[in-house]
Amino acid sequence: MERELKYIDMVEQPISMHPKKFALWLFMVTVVMVFAGLTSAYIVRQSEGNWLEYELPNIFWATTGMVVLSSIALHWAYYSAKKDNLINLKVGMILTVLLGIGFLVGQWYSWVALVDEQVFFVGNPSGSFLYVFTGLHGAHLISGVIFLIIVLISTFRLKVHSRAMDTMEMATTYWHFLGGLWIYLFMFLLLNH
Amino acid sequence: MATASAAHHDTAHDHHDHEHHDNFITKYIFSQDHKMIGKQFLVTGIFWALIGGFLSVLFRLQLGFPDLSLEFLRPLLGGWIDETGKLDPTFYLALVTMHGTIMVFFVLTAGLSGTFSNFLIPLQIGARDMASGFMNMLSYWFFFISGVIMFISLFIKTGPAGGGWVIYPPLSALEQAIPGSGLGMTLWLVAMVFFIASSLMGGINYITTIINLRTKGMSFSRLPLTIWAFFLTAVIGLLSFPVLFGAALLLVFDRSFGTSFYLSDIYIAGEALPNTGGSPVLFQHLFWFLGHPEVYIVLLPALGITSEVIATNSRKPIFGYKAMIISMLGITILSFIVWAHHMFVSGMNPFLGSIFMFLTLIIAVPSAVKVFNYLTTLWRGNLVFTPAMLFSIGLVSFFISGGLTGIFLGNSAIDIQLHDTYFVVAHFHLVMGSASFFGMVAGVYHWFPKMFGRMMDAKLGYVHFWLTFIGVYLVFFPMHYIGIAGFPRRYYNWTNFAFTDMYTDLNMFVSAAAIITFASQFIFLFNFFYSMFRGRKATQNPWRSNTLEWTTPVEPGHGNWPGEIPTVYRWPYDYSKPGAADDFIPQTVPLSQTPESNLPHEQEMVKLELEIMKEEAEVLVANESKH
């Protein structure tokens, strides 16, 4: 038996994943590396002194809440799709998209709050970094919202159900990742500003 | 869902049996076939190599013959030649910058990885095509757009980027600094954004394909070393290019939006700039976090190609297959934690410098293991000196001679003396530039029959090899002496320094050798294009090699194998196996067919192999009858 297992291990088709899902994971790795690079740059620059101190806008707490809620809503939609509960799926997807757009609007108001605090994009790098983090994350989030809207349209065309879950799964993965990325950035800023 | 069906390519339903009707545009321009995309990368890479090489000839003329009138270049360079027939000094800076950028990124990254990863991965792992043909096509066209933008920047009025290929701010960030930091730098950055996107799309595809689309039996321990090298190269690119993107993004903000990430306390003509609080060293950290792994992005594919070519043409299994893989893994990991050895003179903490020095010197270990394995593979082999083999041996030679100076430069105490001298130029042109270039050329000679169904002319190949091999040493070896003597790089001329007088002849010699070496590349060029149409027709397996690509038809069509994809039963290096009738056993030959040469543990597997093959045959028959 053991011998057989060894043989099968060598000759069977190697473990393989849906290529598009796999490529999505690799894409997320590149996004992680961009932000790992930028947040490291933040720490290196901060340790050199001449660093403007300011309060983080409070609206970040609200947007963080929204992004968490949107992930919960999306996961509910995902389970509904798995169970072919198409009404809940649509409700969940619409909720997610709305919360996603709400998050983006909230991030925009965080910039307004920063300007009110006299922290500008042009000036001490400590402020510029915050704009770059939120802006670049926002750009990725816009891509996520577009992806969600595409999935939402296909739910209305009845193309998402328990036997056609690939795009739904990818959208869920990507959206959770973007939410997690924001939580990382927010925690990072809370600890290092 | 082409990719989904490609994933299940060896199920009974096989969509590739249908005849494909390609018109000129889908076949040669917007092709999604990995072989055509590989060839597109190759031809584009050759085009850029010619431009990059030509730029180096221009600045070598200036360096070797500082008093020469370059009036004869006026039809080409126009205003960059001044009234006295001299090369414009700022254009000289642009020449070295563009030479570096073009050679590192466009030739040795896109031209090398792009060509051979695309061409060989599906053929050697037994896949119909890449995981996503469309993304693969996009990868090429992003590279093409990037090239067009970079090419345009060569012709603008203020000249292309001139701050060195490392584009350190503040030089690159301030338009007032040099003419090249104006529009030329902007175009450089835009071109690099497209280039990064292209590399990432390519890399994602390579990794996905290698992990998910291997044929039956092709376990990781049976992959040819080329595939291992392409895989690890793609991993390095995937992890390091995003950081360059981050660095470039901040530089764009500094240049165009007035932020101060890299700029602080700068006075120009007595006027203080508003920027405050930035750190130029921060850019160096971010840049070299890509910049150092980039060296291995360039080199690893060449090493992989060499492994394959040397094993095939020594008619011997590669020595230390696992050691090769572990060395490449070691190089991959180490490449990310040594970047600051490029910054020993940036004022870094000497203790931190020692840590980076220590880590840098560790890279010598896996590199030496690889060299040892190449030499032991060659040792007492039945060497077949094809042009590809000669170029591979040339690579090993450069890897040794250039690698040794790496040990010098890795020591911060010596590096502080030799930093930014011609010693460094000699070092990296041998170990990274010439070695990778030789790997690329070896690959072209070796896989030309698979690409175009014809053979390249071997005699011209020999002439090309000897001229290039000797030429490269004549160009770069004297640079060590010039560097130790204290010649700084990127200087327009040295006539102001008395100590340089005694090296005038040596510089002239280097320039003459560079021109001859460049000229001899046209032998290759002629051979390449002539053989494409008029070369001797290739046989199916001209080098008597083991890997899967030689089991395809001479000119593989779309989908690579006309019928089923072959199953793999053994590793790719069964050359001169004791007892075997031939001196090579392709990967597709089952162990049960070679009882005379099986090793004891392989003999044990034969019975199981037969059982499983029988079951498979039954499944196949059952599937056939369903249709």
Automatic annotation (TrEMBL), chain A:
Family classification: Belongs to the cytochrome c oxidase subunit 3 family.
Compartment(s): Cell membrane; Membrane
Name under which the protein is recorded: Cytochrome c oxidase subunit 3
Keyword Transmembrane helix: yes
Domain Heme-copper oxidase subunit III family profile: 1-193
Topological category with respect to the lipid bilayer: Multi-pass membrane protein
Native organism taxonomy: Bacteria, Pseudomonadati, Bacteroidota, Cytophagia, Cytophagales
Keywords: Membrane, Transmembrane, Transmembrane helix
Classification via PANTHER family: CYTOCHROME C OXIDASE, CYTOCHROME C OXIDASE SUBUNIT III
Transmembrane intervals: 22-44, 59-79, 91-109, 129-153, 174-191
Automatic annotation (TrEMBL), chain B:
Pfam families xrefs: COX1
Primary localization class, coarse: membrane
Keywords, sorted A to Z: Electron transport, Heme, Iron, Membrane, Metal-binding, Respiratory chain, Transmembrane, Transmembrane helix, Transport
Residue ranges constituting the Cytochrome oxidase subunit I profile domain according to the UniProt record: 24-569
Mode of membrane association: Multi-pass membrane protein
Subcellular location: Membrane
Alphabetized InterPro entries for the sequence: Cyt_c_oxase-like_su1_dom (IPR023616), Cyt_c_oxase-like_su1_sf (IPR036927), Cyt_C_Oxase_1 (IPR000883), Cyt_c_Oxase_su1_BS (IPR023615)
Chain ranges passing through the membrane: 41-63, 91-116, 137-156, 187-213, 225-253, 286-306, 318-339, 351-372, 384-409, 421-448, 460-488, 508-530
Source organism, top-level taxon: Bacteria
Entry's family note: Belongs to the heme-copper respiratory oxidase family.
Protein name per Swiss-Prot or TrEMBL: Cbb3-type cytochrome c oxidase subunit I
Biological source species: Algoriphagus oliviformis
